[in-house]
Amino acid sequence: xxxxxxxxxxxxxxxxxxxxxxxxxxxxxxxxxxxxxxxxxxxxxxxxxxxxxxxxxxxxxxxxxxxxxxxxxxxxxxxxxxxxxxxxxxxxxxxxxxxxxxxxxxxxxxxxxxxxxxxxxxxxxxxxxxxxxxxxxxxxxxxxxxxxxxxxxxxxxxxxxxxxxxxxxxxxxxxxxxxxxxxxxxxxxxxxxxxxxxxxxxxxxxxxxxxxxxxxxxxxxxxxxxxxxxxxxxxxxxxxxxxxxxxxxxxxxxxxxxxxxxxxxxxxxxxxxxxxxxxxxxxxxxxxxxxxxxxxxxxxxxxxxxxxxxxxxxxxxxxxxxxxxxxxxxxxxxxxxxxxxxxxxxxxxxxxxxxxxxxxxxxxxxxxxxxxxxxxxxxxxxxxxxxxxxxxxxxxxxxxxxxxxxxxxxxxxxxxxxxxxxxxxxxxxxxxxxxxxxxxxxxxxxxxxxxxxxxxxxxxxxxxxxxxxxxxxxxxxxxxxxxxxxxxxxxxxxxxxxxxxxxxxxxxxxxxxxxxxxxxxxxxxxxxxxxxxxxxxxxxxxxxxxxxxxxxxxxxxxxxxxxxxxxxxxxxxxxxxxxxxxxxxxxxxxxxxxxxxxxxxxxxxxxxxxxxxxxxxxxxxxxxxxxxxxxxxxxxxxxxxxxxxxxxxxxxxxxxxxxxxxxxxxxxxxxxxxxxxxxxxxxxxxxxxxxxxxxxxxxxxxxxxxxxxxxxxxxxxxxxxxxx
Length: 724
What we know:
Blueprint: H1 2-18, E1 20-22, H2 30-35, E2 38-41, H3 52-58, E3 65-67, E4 75-76, E5 89-91, E6 98-99, E7 112-115, E8 121-122, E9 135-138, E10 143-144, E11 157-160, E12 182-184, H4 190-195, E13 225-229, E14 235-236, E15 241-245, H5 250-264, E16 275-281, E17 291-295, E18 299-304, H6 307-322, E19 332-333, E20 335-340, E21 346-351, H7 360-372, E22 377-381, E23 383-384, E24 387-388, H8 397-402, E25 404-408, E26 411-416, H9 421-433, E27 437-444, H10 449-454, H11 483-499, E28 504-508, H12 524-532, H13 544-562, E29 565-569, E30 582-585, H14 591-600, E31 604-607, H15 610-613, H16 636-640, H17 650-655, E32 657-664, H18 672-679, H19 682-691, H20 699-715
Parallel strand pairs: 1-2, 2-3, 3-5, 4-6, 6-8, 7-9, 8-10, 9-11, 11-12, 15-16, 16-18, 21-22, 21-32, 22-27, 27-28, 28-29, 29-30, 30-31, 31-32
Antiparallel strand pairs: 13-20, 14-19, 17-18, 17-20, 23-24, 25-26
């Protein structure tokens, strides 16, 4: 104990010698915030909006040590230091009352924490994933929430001053290696701790429960039919399994082995076992992704129309095994019969590494999580005004000159990186094993400043443009009157077609109308093209026809040379949807117009209206991202209310509706953990909207069913917004 106190004293002394001391963050310039590594704050700290804590988290990306002991603050707010991987030391205020949810989530360089005696509450998941945390000192007796110190597997000493065990949950220290972590409590109080929930794990005598899965309370998305035979003999799952699989299902058999080993904790080889898992194909099922799952006392049968259907049956099985989410696996499954099929064919999430780069391995890790909930397409927004993120061998300058910059709005952080074609091939193959399609997007004619920065001849007047470091929309577009534009796009799409086998390629097309189309009005090359197209107006009123011409040429190339189906964001500037293309309804208030355009043009449509599907928006007032360009709030319930058919009738759903997409634009998402935070649980709501039939959907029921799923996510170390 003396050693710990001496270390803390030395740390305080060292920090005081090198740290900047200010009352509040407003006392620092933007450049000082960007460069700060050690800070001492002494004033009354704000916790709402662009608060002192938000600035510490998002503007001080180099921050390693912060001393709050002299500040006037009662609460470390929710998400205060969420996923700040460089943060090593925090000295908490002496007056601290509460530590908010996920306040230090994944601060994996954090080494020690002293909770002062004034602390009353440490909320759910407050220090979840702080795997570098070695020492925890609790001066008082605060209430410790679910998963508060879960996955802190570096903990070696926990010292509690209170003779009465602080209230804890069975999951508070989930994943801590209790064999290597020494718990020190006041002399004579050991028996109290030995019997107390949460603390009893350190004495090896936690109560052994017997967990029975209740399927109707834990499956997301909700299946088409579920019949549970609760009286029949249940199936004991924590034992060895024998897996039988059709020859076409080697991939699904591997997933079955992974799931059973991970969940049951029993080593599996699939060849010998006391119970059977049978995987097979059934051509009598209707939809390509349909499946049935049957549990008996002898084992489980999963039959699918296709390997994808079998895979989704396995995802449902994993959901059943997770049960209430508090432990890795339930003990028994009741006998049941489950029949299921999706409502829509495409269930997509879109990520945006252009604004803030997503490292390859972290992008790859996003796929298994979305596949758990039967989402089947990952849309990559690979280029924008802020960066070019995909290797194009014909134009190495694109990644050499347009994949690195400093700054995203008020965050003066270095942002760099791109994906090689070999990495993308690896991603495609990995995703295919999870039945997820990778759809690339190359924007045109707008959102192309990064490419124009490298090749000014792509734009009217060959303008020299810097890479954009803020959000918003540039009014500079690719020039449709220059042959180099088509040569460039043709070469880019030729390489993309070789890397991405998906049927689809996304062409962007958004935000290139008013006022951006005006940039073509006085361009000599565009005027020449207008004469070729018999456009006689000299103002901007028919510039949309130039965009139509540009898209027409590119679409023809993609179809005839590469067999691709083009996609684009719907804008009213598209007077006609080109035949065979897929349009995305994204703008607030324009979904009905987009749907009517799809019907008129006999086109397929994906719904991702901002009022339901923009997952970068905060889920509640005050939720991340607290500072943005004026995003509206999109609650979990609002997302769940999405009707993929948009009240357009059965014919629309049958003939035009392709699916649903959730978008994760990354202007304000500066860590991988925050991608998950913004995506979930709303991605669960979109998954159910896209998969489950209307009669199987209920907000109140969904709200109950996601709780086990979310607890399981925290148990596995995945962040999500708790603002619902």
